[in-house]
Amino acid sequence: DRQTLVAVLQFLRRSNLRESEEILRREARLLGDDLGAAALSPAGAGLLGAPGGDTDPAGGEALLSRVTAAAAIAIGGSAATVASSSPGVAAVAAVPPGKGGARAGAAGSLPGAGGRPLPAAPLRTGGTLCLSQPRGLSVMLGHKGGIVVEDQPDVSAVLSAYNQQGDPTLYEEYYSGLKHFIECSLDCHRAELSQLFYPLFVHMYLELVYNQHESEAKSFFERFHGDQECYYQDDLRVLSSLTKKEHMKGNETMLDFRTSKFVLRISRDSYQLLKRHLQEKQNNQIWNIVQEHLYIDIFDGMPRSKQQIDAMVGSLAGEAKREANKAKVFFGLLKEPEFDVPLDDEDEEGENEEGKPKKKKPKKDSVGSKSKKQDPNAPPQNRIPLPELKDSDKLDKVMNMKEAARRVRLGPECLPSICFYTFLNAYQGLTAVDITDDSSMIVGGFADSTVRVWSVTPKKLRSVKTAADLSLIDKESDDVLERIMDEKTASELKILYGHSGPVYGTSFSPDRNYLLSCSEDGTVRLWSLQTFTCLVGYKGHNYPVWDTQFSPYGYYFVSGGHDRVARLWATDHYQPLRIFAGHLADVTCTRFHPNSNYIATGSADRTIRLWDVLNGNCVRIFTGHKGPIHSLAFSPNGRFLATGATDGRVLLWDIGHGLMVGELKGHTDTIYALRFSRDGEILASGSMDNTVRLWDAVKAFEDLETDDFTTATGHINLPENSQDLLLGTYMTKSTPVVHLHFTRRNLLLAAGAYSSQ
């Protein structure tokens, strides 16, 4: 936009800012060239002078404390214009070539530029132009309203965005004025605009605290904190403890709120209404916060109802932008490898798993015919490298299929039997449980830092013999796998020592040769179930690791912890292969998708993210829970995800469309365990309220409204009542349920530690 550029250049010349003028001239001609960072002379005078328009070259506020090529040129080859919507705030606005007029945001005129109006910093909106930021660079407003470009959100730079803006005594008036306006607006807009209350309340409070108006901040908090939605109570408790500027320096919650824009999804009509109101009232204070700290995702169409909004909000940073859930996800299952299966009617003892594979009969039946056509939604077979099948894996697959042939078909008329493993006298404090896929072993992680493995079949756990004894064995004999085991070590329980803190997560490998455990000590350990010793300690997390899980194909595993990231590992690498960063709080639970191409993570920021293992990208962000997420389960067909949290709700998600499709209410406490039956007909949930509940998954997922409109705007319609999906509730005497597992024949196993209180 040439005109704008000329105006800015003239103004710079008039203010004797020759150096700035030179830089801008060079940039305008050489768009896209990285000219490196050109520092401005400290004597440079300010663009934003006295409101009357007289600029004082020597004492004026410094416009740019540092100009980096990346920030000066707006991305995408567009000219960068410097604009302002109110004295004391400078912003860089991207102006695409040839799009003169179409911009959101109020026009502010530059003092001293002959009153020529320039576009104000446009609001970040879904369909319109937004304040451009190069990746990895956050643009922040410094003390003097100048722009500082920081590579990483440095604490002081982040906080300085709360520079003095406006009369502290008027904050309550501003807020109550907006509150009155929203409460008096039409019902259809009220629900949408009410979403503004919470983020505005937080930012205005923090602004008062930062500028050391402590008494005003206190009275502002006391007057309006009761108006906020109940699900923000925990955040408000943290906020109420920040009463001095010094408190804000090291506070993580505070930093999250500042660095991540709070996302609100609002219809165009409601947004126009708000904008008009703020401009008429000249309410710059609130308008500045809206522009700087909020991301408004505008959609065309009907405003959403209170119920539709309530279902989706509640996370630390508002809703997910609609863009976040647009990427294609291959949620289908991989084709099973084909191999011949020995068909024998006389079933050998199921226990003979360690034995050698039987001589294969050349009858090409079972799996060969079973392998269906490639699922159209499945990822390419070789999209990520998966381990080769060993003979023992093939044998296990055969066993699995024989079991599957005897599997009970579950449904509302045929509910599973439930077998509950209660850990009695677990005074060490049970913190994690896992059960092998073939249901032969169960492991408990304890607060006393031990990992304990039990056999739940008559077959005892045995270690491999010592090296000296192994050298005496005839390696060609048929029962060599039996001979290498040392009978003297046989016992029902093995205790594994190695961690130096509570063990928060455990996971068996699919082939039952290995066991993972993760702990408060910041490590993930890999144990051998042949020797019952620790093979590797994976160090990468610096803080407690809350969960770990093996891939359904083995070899890969994922871990998540207090450092807010999830890491993907391979058993033979010391370093993580991928680091999934994006959550704003602890990663509390992790799960592999059945096709192993994706990983789901649940967090204390009240969101669930789906990550692509291939490139590390976040492909889905699900918001709607009102408390930290503690359980995740994928449906066996890979299409759906169930999540449970401290809010006692189970939410159901359609992965392909990126939509919430159901809500199961009934539990009264945190849900720590979720599991689909082997065919996906039943969803079982286990909670701290000492119950296991069974839900009709088939009914929950049928007749889904996933038309384009719903996908585009997020107008989801959840049934009022989930009670007709509840098939049964089973109480324990006094045992919180921490793990659930369906056996290959669809018997439900549950586990927890008896609590006497």
What does this structure look like?
This is Transcription initiation factor TFIID subunit 5. Its main location: nucleus. It comes from Pelecanoides urinatrix. Belongs to the WD repeat TAF5 family. It is found in: Nucleus. With 757 residues, the chain is of the alpha+beta class. Among the domains are: 151 residues, Serine Threonine Protein Phosphatase 5, Tetratricopeptide repeat; 321 residues, Methylamine Dehydrogenase, Chain H, CATH 2.130.10.10. The strands form eleven sheets. A four-stranded antiparallel sheet has the order 10-11-12-13, with no helix packed on it. The chain has a four-stranded antiparallel sheet with strand order 14-15-16-17, with no helix packed on it. Helix 6 crosses helix 11, helix 7 runs antiparallel to helix 8 and helix 7 packs across helix 12. The longest helix is centred in the middle third of the chain and has 15 residues. It is elongated. The protein starts with a helix and ends with a strand.
